[in-house]
Design goal:
Elements (H helix, E strand, L loop, with lengths): L1 H13 L4 H16 L5 H11 L6 H14 L2 H13 L5 H14 L5 H18 L4 H12 L9 H10 L3 H30 L9 H26 L5 H19 L5 H34 L2 H12 L3 H18 L2 H18 L4 H15 L7 H10 L3 H8 L3 H13 L1 H12 L1
């Protein structure tokens, strides 16, 4: 019957059924055939799955990122990044990465980075003579930093599914996110040396001060969020509300670049995206309940541990599995489905749930750059007006620094857990 459940889910996905309906539909079919529970348990579990206080942060983090894009704040961030690192060889490549690091502290999603800041970055790099492929590749790779550096939408979903502290997950993502930036900048420096890239700006203290002044208020967003959470001023959920309120103040009253029509459009997009995410979470809740009650998690653990009991080897197998899943499944759906299955195995071999959260999210972020379901690839193809296949090929070389970062995050848990232990004891 467990095989029937998984087979039903697989068939529904193959025929093009939305993930949320496939999860709920397969679960309902299992309950009807097995007659294991009253049919109303499906609705009950789905409602219980989304009845969670941390999930309230989802619409606010989504809206904050959209408001930053709509209010033209991303252009100020880009100008500051140019003044800061544009004087390096391959300058706009470094600017691309630094801009993503800054924007990561505001939006928490790779899609917002690729669609908003990426639009500015690709155009600027083309205008300065960089190849389209290099511009698309570095833009795609740098956008994956967004969900690693706090705040992070996937971390919120993982925290809810794993019953794990979202504050600790946010703290754990800061150093790995900066490491991703360092490895990507090293890759850009190598490209600059091999291809003879020029400097795109001259360093000037006056220009740095001017652009910093223009970008000062947006730059305070990560300080506001991270500072508020670490000092206990507000919870991660309340931080999302604070970010949205701050973005509204900047767009409507400070810069006055956000119109009423733009606000309505952002609100509707936020409602639509939130509904999709919560529908997936609801469907995954009943699916996860059935998987747990049928002891699938125990069988998965037994299967993996029958192959090897070495923690490093188990982590390697899980990483490979997650990378493959990332090629075919959307991030939120993958987290909601796989956390109930893989987390017991990780706990059994002594992996901290917070550490595993970073491993899982980083794997799935890399999946955003791999076909056939790489969402960032579709966005970059549209922004750069190139084919999906060309966007995929452009991003492939930049998987190397991301995989190096993944290896360090996986096998150096102290690096990931240093800040959570420091701030939360």
């Amino acid at each position: 019957m467990t095989a029937f459940l998984l087979l039903s889910f697989g068939i529904l996905l193959i025929i093009g059924t939305p993930v949320a309906i496939a999860l709920g539909g397969a679960s309902l079919l299992y309950i009807i055939v097995e007659d294991a529970s009253p049919h109303l348990v499906v609705i009950h579990r789905m409602v219980s799955g989304v009845d969670s206080f941390p999930l309230l942060s989802i619409p606010f983090f989504i809206m904050a990122g959209s408001l930053m894009n709509s209010a033209g704040i991303t252009a100020r961030i880009f100008d500051f990044a140019v003044a800061l690192v544009g004087w390096l060889k391959g300058g706009l490549g470094h600017v691309n990465i630094v801009g993503s690091v800054i924007f990561a502290g505001m939006s928490g999603t790779a899609v917002a980075d690729a669609g908003g800041l990426g639009n500015i970055e690709i155009k600027a790099m083309r205008d300065h003579g960089y190849s389209t492929d290099f511009a698309v590749g570095i833009t795609g790779a740098s956008s994956t930093i967004g969900p690693i550096i706090p705040p992070s939408l996937p971390m919120v979903i993982y925290g809810v599914m794993a019953n794990c502290s979202i504050g600790q997950l946010f703290a754990a993502g800061l150093l790995p996110g900066l490491l991703m930036a360092v490895t990507l900048m090293a890759m850009v420096a190598w490209y600059a040396h091999v291809r003879g890239f020029h400097r795109d700006a001259t360093f000037a203290w006056a220009r740095l001060a001017y652009t910093f002044k223009r970008a000062f208020l947006p730059l305070m967003t990560p300080v506001l969020l991270i500072g508020g959470m670490t000092t206990g001023l507000f919870t991660p959920t309340e931080a999302a509300i604070a970010a949205t309120a701050y973005a509204l103040v900047l767009g409507l009253f400070v810069y006055r670049t956000l119109t009423l029509r733009g606000l309505v459009r952002v609100s509707m997009e936020t409602a639509e995206t939130t509904a999709i995410i919560l529908f997936i979470v609801a469907g995954a809740s009943i699916f996860g309940y059935i998987i747990t009650t049928t002891r699938v998690t125990d069988h998965v653990a037994e299967l993996v541990l029958s192959i090897t009991t070495q923690p490093w080897a188990v982590l390697l197998l899980v990483n490979v599995f997650l990378l493959i899943v990332g090629c075919f499944m959307e991030t939120i759906a993958a987290i909601t489905i796989l956390v109930p299955v893989l987390l017991p195995l990780m706990t059994q071999i002594g992996v901290d749930p917070v550490h595993f959260g970073l491993i899982m999210v980083l794997n799935l972020m890399i999946g955003l750059l791999t076909p056939p379901v790489g969402m960032v690839l579709y966005i970059l193809a549209r922004v750069a007006n190139i084919s999906f296949e060309r966007a995929t090929k452009a991003c492939l070389p930049f998987l190397i620094p991301l995989l190096v970062t993944l290896a360090i995050v996986t096998y150096w848990p102290a690096f990931v857990l240093f800040l959570p232990h420091y701030f939360y004891g």
